[in-house]
């Protein structure tokens, strides 16, 4: 189900609820294909830092692969009402063209799934698929060089899918640079990595604790290591969360 609605997140608390950052089990968050270790964790920032461009999450430049798969468990079951995903720009082109990045174009959202790899996330129907608006959509652009455009909240519907969530998995399979190149018939253009600066959720806790289990994860999961459908997502050994 595609999601295109959104709201501007002017307040820390609004009709969509409070930030769920306090409920995220940071030690168990991981992202496959991230450009550096724990880059995925680094973009789960406090709400007041949502406009900061550093630290960020990027897909690696050395393998021309723009996909990212991120798993976020919670310390207790939560109700998620909205998600915010923020990139620097549709296509960010600094003076050094080799450092260009692009904001993600779509986000597939899966609730309470611990069995996803890249192949299954690419093919499986998600609980919701969000078409992310370009960062330039917000008219109020910050003038401070350390800040980018504002952020947008995308409500998650149907709401019943996101009640009693113990984890959420996000798949970013494309970005604006790829979509624009395909639209112009320039599929052979150089691949521009995906960049994400902030991921946030709003909703509420339930006080239902998630059962703790012990897992051992790779320090940096690569796509070539996660091609078998049904394999544990990001785990070397031990049960899934």
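Q: What amino acid sequence fits the structure above?
A:
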């Amino acid at each position: 189900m595609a999601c295109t609605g959104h709201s501007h997140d002017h307040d820390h608390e609004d009709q969509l609820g409070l930030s769920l950052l306090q409920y995220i089990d940071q030690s168990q968050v991981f992202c496959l294909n991230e450009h550096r270790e724990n880059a995925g964790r680094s973009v789960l920032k406090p709400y007041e830092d949502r406009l900061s461009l550093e630290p960020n999450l990027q897909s690696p430049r050395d393998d021309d692969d723009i996909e990212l798969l991120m798993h976020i468990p919670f310390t207790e079951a939560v109700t998620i009402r909205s998600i915010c995903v923020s990139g620097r720009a549709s296509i960010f082109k600094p003076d050094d063209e080799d450092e260009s990045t692009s904001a993600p174009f779509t986000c597939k959202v899966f609730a309470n799934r611990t069995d996803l790899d890249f192949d299954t996330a690419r093919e499986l129907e998600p609980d919701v698929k969000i078409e992310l608006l370009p960062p330039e959509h917000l008219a109020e652009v910050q003038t401070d060089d350390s800040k980018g455009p504002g952020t947008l909240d995308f409500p998650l519907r149907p709401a019943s899918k996101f009640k009693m969530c113990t984890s959420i998995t996000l798949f970013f399979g494309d970005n604006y640079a790829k979509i624009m190149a395909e639209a112009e018939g320039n599929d052979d253009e150089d691949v521009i990595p995906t960049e994400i600066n902030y991921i946030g959720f709003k909703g509420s806790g339930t006080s239902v604790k998630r059962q703790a289990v012990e897992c051992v994860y790779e320090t940096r999961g690569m796509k070539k290591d996660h091609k078998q459908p049904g394999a544990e997502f990001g785990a070397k050994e031990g049960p899934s969360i």
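Q: And what stands out in the fold?
A: The CA atoms of residues 3 and 239 lie 32 Å apart.
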